[in-house]
């Protein structure tokens, strides 16, 4: 009791603050005077989170939709920032592929209907945004993107997933055009990209009914390319991206562009064949020559192996030793 009185007097005389809690000997304890962190430190502890998060893992760009409180619905600000993030990835010569994902348990539940209801006079401007209401959905992205699909991937969110080249879907994730309930049209490529991907009959079924699609069905009809365990879509999509990033990229992008041209632009088979051949520029041909040498001279990629297909940087002394060993053979 005497100890407590002494400590209380110390607190009064010095301005120390008594904290809630007790020391091991049941004595009250106090903090140092003026122990509250300055306002700047508090701000640093709670930095403002970006709406669209971007980072690079190796050569793979990760682009995250970061509005988890509204299931990553896209509003005008998010759409603008998503367009900027994807354009930055397209212009990054060090990043051949990107992964698009949703933060906090959902990929995206579509467009933010609250924004539409709050400003009904602006609905036309939002829907008619030149690049697309959800982001850069009215054009082909210059380099491959993979969607890491978790939770809800519905309405405009599904259109964002269709914008990507491949979709890695968690086993309990849900897809569907839930906007059918509210009369919100598909204006971000859903009706354009879906039918070539899964066929007209199946596309009509999904678009007209707006029904829920499970991962099992999505994989069966070609809407999902991989189904993975819950919580692993981002990691698995990153692994898939890294496996594509190791290939000669001029060739990858030529073949990808030719596929899109065949589906969306060519009027007939001959046009598609001409484009396939004539778009193989010097850079692609140079990669082909280098690849042939790797196969024949360095024995890389033989017997169908895709692992370890890149030549590793080795010291000059080791390279000379390898040449000596080869000459002995």
Radius of gyration: 28 Å
Strand order of the largest sheet: 3-4-5-6-8-11
Low-confidence blocks of residues: 1-35
> What best-fitting shape do the alpha-carbon axes yield?
globular
Estimate the strand proportion. Answer: 5-15%
Helix content: 40-55%
Question: What is the count of β-strands?
Answer: 11
The number of helical runs is 14
Secondary-structure element string:
HEEHEEHEHHEEHEEHHEHEHHHHH
Arithmetic mean of pLDDT: 83
Main sheet record: 6 strands, mixed
What assembly state would you assign to the polypeptide chains in this entry? single chain
State the separation between the terminal residues, measured CA to CA. Answer: 91 Å
Global structural class = alpha/beta
Descriptive notes:
The chain has helices spanning 2-14, 39-45, 76-90, 113-118, 123-127, 156-163, 190-198, 200-209, 215-221, 233-245, 249-264, 269-278, 282-296, 316-328, and strands spanning 17-22, 28-31, 52-57, 60-65, 97-102, 145-149, 152-154, 166-170, 174-176, 213-214, 226-228. The protein is α/β, with parallel strands linked by helices and 329 residues long. Strands 3-4-5-6-8-11 form a six-stranded mixed beta sheet, sandwiched between helices. The protein has a three-stranded mixed beta sheet with strand order 7-9-10. The termini are far apart. Residues 1-35 have low confidence and may be disordered.
Short description:
By secondary structure, the chain is of the alpha/beta class.
Brief descriptors of the model:
single chain, 329 residues, alpha/beta, six-stranded mixed β-sheet, three-stranded mixed β-sheet, 14 helices, 15% strand
């Amino acid at each position: 009791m005497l100890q407590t009185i002494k400590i209380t007097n110390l607190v009064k005389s010095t301005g120390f603050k008594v904290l809630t809690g007790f020391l091991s000997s049941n004595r009250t304890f106090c903090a140092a005077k003026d122990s509250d962190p300055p306002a700047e430190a508090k701000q640093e502890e709670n930095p403002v989170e970006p709406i669209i998060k971007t980072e690079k893992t190796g050569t793979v760009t990760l682009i995250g939709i970061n509005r988890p409180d509204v299931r990553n619905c896209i509003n005008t600000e998010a759409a603008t920032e998503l367009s900027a993030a994807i354009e930055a990835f397209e212009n990054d010569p060090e990043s051949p592929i990107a992964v698009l994902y949703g933060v906090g348990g959902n990929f995206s539940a579509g467009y933010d209907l609250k924004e539409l209801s709050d400003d009904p006079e602006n609905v036309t401007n939002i829907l008619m945004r030149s690049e697309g209401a959800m982001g850069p959905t009215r054009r082909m992205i210059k380099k491959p993107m993979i969607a890491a699909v978790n939770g809800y991937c519905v309405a405009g969110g599904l259109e964002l997933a269709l914008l990507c080249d491949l979709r890695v879907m968690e086993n309990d994730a849900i897809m569907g055009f839930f906007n059918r309930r509210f009369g919100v049209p598909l204006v971000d490529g859903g009706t354009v990209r879906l039918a070539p991907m899964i066929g007209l009959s199946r596309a009509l079924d999904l678009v007209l009914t707006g029904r829920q699609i499970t991962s099992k069905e999505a994989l069966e009809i070609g809407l999902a390319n991989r189904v993975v365990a819950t919580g692993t879509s981002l990691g698995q999509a990153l692994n898939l991206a890294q496996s594509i990033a190791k290939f000669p990229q001029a060739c990858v992008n030529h073949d990808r562009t030719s596929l899109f041209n065949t589906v969306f632009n060519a009027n007939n088979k001959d046009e598609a064949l001409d484009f396939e051949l004539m778009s193989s520029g010097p850079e692609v041909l140079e990669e082909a020559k280098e690849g042939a040498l790797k196969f024949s001279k360095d024995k890389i990629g033989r017997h169908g192996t895709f692992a370890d297909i890149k030549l590793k940087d080795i010291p000059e002394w080791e390279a000379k030793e390898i040449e000596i060993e080869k000459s002995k053979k």
